[in-house]
Amino acid sequence: MIDAINNSLFSPIGEDGMIGILLILNGLKVTLIVTFFAMLLGAVLGIGTTFMKMSSKWYIRFPANLYVGVIRGTPVVVQLVILYFIVLSALDVDKITAAIIAFGLNSGAYISEIIRAGIQAVDKGQTEAARSLGLSQAMTMKSIILPQAVKNILPALGNEFIVLLKETAVIGFIGGVDLMRAGEIIRSRTFEDSVPLFTCALIYLFLTYSFTFVLSKFEKRLKQSD
Fold first, then answer.
1. Which pLDDT score is estimated for 218?
2. Which of 49, 96, 161, 209 satisfies CB 3.0 to 4.6 Å to 112 for a cystine?
3. What is the dihedral sign for C-alpha 32, 37, 38, 44?
4. Residue-wise burial string across 103-136, b where 16 or more C-beta atoms lie within 10 A, e elsewhere
């Protein structure tokens, strides 16, 4: 077992002289970069899509509903492959940027539903009371609805970040070297299956449990402020 760990993680694994653990750390960096920026892009798209879906005009609601329906109805790996090999094939877009765009588009649809559910969870009577006091629809949303909806939205957004982190394991389908792909490269070069794959699994487990722990602490603070 010790020899397997040494051969997989602490010895050169190919003619390029790359050390296994360094390849995994580089893959981890790619995974975190894609997750973070895809979440930011998804948040922007999600907010815009939410207000489009809540519009009274059908021609504004229709493209938003179509976007959410298509994204939620197809696997993220299919979206990634289509975006990189077809949509962006004529452009000089690197794999990390393509992955950020693909996962951002995917996350935006789910964030949109999270925000919409958070807004709809606020009692409609508060909207009616605010409008009866003379507040405009925009002012009601800004001052009354959104501050209450945020408490429902933020924990769910944290969960979406964790889901997105794990979904990035398919970046290897377009040739990107993320954490999971780094493990696969080590496995293919050393013919050691257990060490690289369990190493990647443990890193994902550590990351998800760390984010979950931080999220649980944050949720408790939100409940205490009620």
1. 79
2. 49
3. positive
4. bbbbbbbbbbbbbbebbeebeeeebeebeeeebe
DSSP string, the chain: -HHHHHHHHSSB-STT--BHHHHHHHHHHHHHHHHHHHHHHHHHHHHHHHHHHT-S-HHHHHHHHHHHHHHHHS-HHHHHHHIIIIITTTS---HHHHHHHHHHHHHHHHHHHHHHHHHHTS-HHHHHHHHHTT--HHHHIIIIIHHHHHHHHHHHHHHHHHHHHHHGGGGGGGT---HHHHHHHHHHHH---HHHHHHHHHHHHHHHHHHHHHHHHHHHHHHHT-
In this predicted structure, the answer to whether residue 138 has a pLDDT above a threshold of 80 is no
Mean pLDDT of 13-23: 82
| Environment class of 87 (CB within 10 Å of its CB; exposed 0-12, middle 13-18, buried 19+) | middle
| Spatial contact of 39 and 101, defined as CB atoms under 8 Å apart | no
The model's pLDDT over 147-173, given as tens digits with 9 standing for 90+, comes to: 777 777 888 888 899 999 999 999 999
Contact 171, 178 (CB under 8 A): yes
> For 172, what's the count of Cα atoms within 13 Å in the CB-facing half-sphere?
13
pLDDT at res. 24 = 93
Give pTM, 2 decimals.
0.89
Q: Is the pLDDT confidence value at 37 over 70?
A: yes
